[in-house]
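Students often ask why we bother encoding 3D structure as a string. The short answer is that it lets us treat folding as translation between two languages. Here is a chain of 515 residues written in the first language.
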Amino acid sequence: MNGGDEVVAAPGGPPQPLEWKFSQVFGERTAGEEVQEVDIISAIEFDKTGDHLATGDRGGRVVLFERTDTKDNGGTRRDLERMDYPISRHPEFRYKTEFQSHEPEFDYLKSLEIEEKINKIRWCQTANGALFLLSTNDKTIKFWKVQEKKVKKISEMNVDPSKAVGNGNLASSSNLGSSKTHLANGGCPDRSFSCLSNDISFPPGGIPSLRLPQVTSHETSLVARCRRVYAHAHDYHINSISNNSDGETFISADDLRINLWNLEISNQSFNIVDVKPANMEDLTEVITSAEFHPTHCNTLAYSSSKGSIRLIDLRQSALCDSHAKLFEEQEAPGARSFFTEIIASISDIKFGKDGRYILSRDYMTLKLWDINMDSGPVTTFQVHEYLRPKLCDLYENDSIFDKFECCLSGDGLRVATGSYSNLFRVFGCGTGSTEATTLEASKNPMRRQVPTPSRPSRSLSSSITRVVRRGAENPGVDANGNCFDFTTKLLHLAWHPTENSIACAAANSLYMYYA
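And here it is in the second language, the structure alphabet:
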């Protein structure tokens, strides 16, 4: 596939499973090293080109990485292919810069501490060689500009360098013992040039040969500057932000409201979705994630804690649920339990590149939805079915409330999400695909392999209405017989927009893989 060894599918058959390989790791921990809470990664995002990657952590920092395998060769991948230029086997990134995006705050009116943790990062359109991105914590969104600034220095002075002293003033051995009287401001009572000529050594040719100093740029440094601060618009914690395809607006969502912002206006936003009831005792569900359609600037989707997704058109009354298209899965008879609603809560949604499909992640499964079909998900992928008998334990230690993210490949043929023990899973969603790979965030990602199930998935273009469930595993232990560690969890990951490359976070370490 792109960026690695090509996988050729048989004519008319499903694509072959990818063979994932380790690429890079940033912030790798040594054995026994204790991880600081502020260093744990809490957000990952590729930009649209895939040439830049941003991470945010619980300490409020944003770290940027840039791709080097194409930049060093001086052209895009397509240009290099046309020139028959050798291309690196896979994307390679290097550290670019970092900056402090948010600081801890305290809301004195509500007696509430506001953490500096970065909840989400979203890249904006580039302009004039500068990078722009949005970052948010629980209450405040910031718009950042990262640009290279040239450091300018004065050069080509005509003064003899041997006559310069540490503070930049000039002196000569002749004036150290001179009896001439100098004024406090550096002047000389003698109006002639004799005073000046004793202190400064002129170049050959005298005064006519003097030239003005020149300013040259010797090096560049990256400077991050906060352009806008969007604050005081959310009473509850912000759980998601999303850019509009128009390049001018974005949305921010908390538990009960979704607000629409203009990037250039920080003191005003418009409430476009409000699920807050008149009486809070009547509250039955909250907003868990929101995302703009990738190409239709008037369309967005948001998910709820009840496991449903609503698609709304901003040209209609978004505040009224009757205008929203509802996507939900019917509950199986007799399957309801105390944990049903908890594990049904959707923690993340992502649109496919063309906007036709929506990927959602709840606690136990990944679900792929076709926006043209509201009867139920097209496909359901079992992420860690072995946890179902352990739901009581997971509820007791609050792990059942962990919020896992999900992502889709650029070609829409595969989806991925994280699990416990620093594992993540990749599923094929193409026609007839049975791909269900389990990988570990380590330098040997394939060491924990789970046998691939034999049942194929349904075609995305199929009109079959039944739901296909895939990826179930042996309960209790992994493929190596190891007990799963619920304290190590892979919550955040991102798929490169054009190549089969995944970046994922395991505590404070950023791992990258390619296929």
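Translate back mentally: Residues 1-11, 163-188, 191-197, 450-469 have pLDDT under 50 and may be disordered. Keep this in mind for the problem set.
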